[in-house]
Design brief:
- Helix 1 runs antiparallel to helix 2 and helix 2 runs antiparallel to helix 3.
- This protein is an all-alpha fold and 71 residues long.
- It starts with 5 loop residues before the first helix and ends with a helix.
- 76% of the residues lie in helices and 0% in strands.
- The chain has 4 helices and no strands.
Length: 71
C-alpha cells in the first residue's frame, strides 16, 4: 500500500471489502494499511479471512501469528 496516510485509506478499503468479501488483494491492502497505522487488531479479521481464502500461503499464517503476538 503506497500512501502516507494508511489510517485514512483503511475505511475506504473496508467499505470495498464489505461489498467484495472475497477480494484478496483488497484484504492484503487493508492488512498493510492497518499495520502501518499501528492498528494490528483491525488487521486480524482480514488476515483470518485471507487464511481461509488461501490456506496454503505460509506467509499469511506467519503474519496472522505475528498479529496475534502483537496484541
Amino acid at each position: 500500500l503506497r500512501t502516507a496516510r494508511p489510517a485514512q485509506a483503511l475505511p475506504w478499503l473496508e467499505r470495498f471489502i464489505a461489498a467484495n468479501p472475497a477480494h484478496a488483494e483488497a484484504r492484503k491492502m487493508a492488512v498493510d494499511a492497518a499495520t502501518q497505522a499501528g492498528q494490528t487488531a483491525r488487521a486480524l479479521p482480514h488476515l483470518e479471512k485471507l487464511s481461509q481464502l488461501d490456506p496454503r500461503q505460509p506467509a499469511l499464517w506467519y503474519e496472522l501469528g505475528r498479529a496475534y503476538e502483537a496484541l
